[in-house]
């Protein structure tokens, strides 16, 4: 089922979840909330992969809240297709799955954040605020699961560490602050450079690391011991 309401100049949001009652509760919460002085406007809902993709293609929402479980398809497949199409929407996984596997897969596929269902409303709003500032949101318990995955990966050969990507000193500095969760504006202030310069360096970093977004860059940087 796909429903739509009038779109306004706000944080346009799509809810992708197979539970109609849960969507209704989240819609009510978000439609009465503001993030950074911007109202959140739920412009649509979808309970399947196909309907979500159709809506995204037509409306390009600013934010997509995604559950892993859908009536047809799943949230990971949606993330994969968004990643392949270089979609501009920010994505927040809102799921009852707390296992390492799901968290790791979602972040590998470019999710900007992961929040467990059942957390208090303010935690969800804080997560949305974080990712709308172009940062990654991993609550403490999620971060523990996420980084535990890296501890289990096979160690790289010494010759692979710190030298596979030919990052410049400036690019390495920017990558360090990126892993710390800094926004482009915060990185610029730390390094005394403009946001435009930060974005240019990030584009070069993504090319050298062969990644498509900030989340993948962070994953690769940690995995390859680049920071």
Keyword list:
227 residues; alpha/beta; Rossmann fold; Arc Repressor Mutant, subunit A; 7-stranded mixed β-sheet; globular; Tscrpt_reg_LuxR_C; DNA-binding response regulator; DNA binding
Structural class: alpha/beta
Regions with little confidence, pLDDT below 50 for 5+ residues: 154-163
What is the number of strand segments?
A: 7
The secondary-structure element order is EEHEEHEHEHEHHHHHH
GO molecular function, one term: DNA binding
Protein name: DNA-binding response regulator
GO biological process, one term: phosphorelay signal transduction system
Pfam family, one: GerE
Describe the structure concisely for a colleague:
With 227 residues, the chain is of the alpha/beta class.
Q: What's the layout of helices and strands?
A:
Blueprint: E1 2-4, E2 11-16, H1 20-31, E3 34-35, E4 38-46, H2 49-59, E5 63-66, H3 75-84, E6 90-95, H4 100-108, E7 113-116, H5 121-132, H6 140-152, H7 169-179, H8 184-191, H9 195-209, H10 214-223
Parallel strand pairs: 2-4, 2-5, 5-6, 6-7
Antiparallel strand pairs: 1-4, 3-4
Domain HTH luxR-type: 160-225
Modified residues (4-aspartylphosphate): 67
InterPro entries: CheY-like_superfamily, NreC/VraR/RcsB-like_REC, Sig_transdc_resp-reg_C-effctor, Sig_transdc_resp-reg_receiver, Tscrpt_reg_LuxR_C, WalR-like
Question: Can you describe what's shown?
Answer:
This protein has helices at 20-31, 49-59, 75-84, 100-108, 121-132, 140-152, 169-179, 184-191, 195-209, 214-223; strands at residues 2-4, 11-16, 34-35, 38-46, 63-66, 90-95, 113-116. Strands 1, 2, 3, 4, 5, 6 and 7 form a seven-stranded mixed beta sheet that branches. By secondary structure, it is α/β, with parallel strands linked by helices. The protein folds into two domains: 2-149, 3-Layer(aba) Sandwich (Rossmann fold), CATH 3.40.50.2300; 154-223, Winged helix-like DNA-binding domain superfamily/Winged helix DNA-binding domain (Arc Repressor Mutant, subunit A, Orthogonal Bundle). It contains ten helices and seven strands.
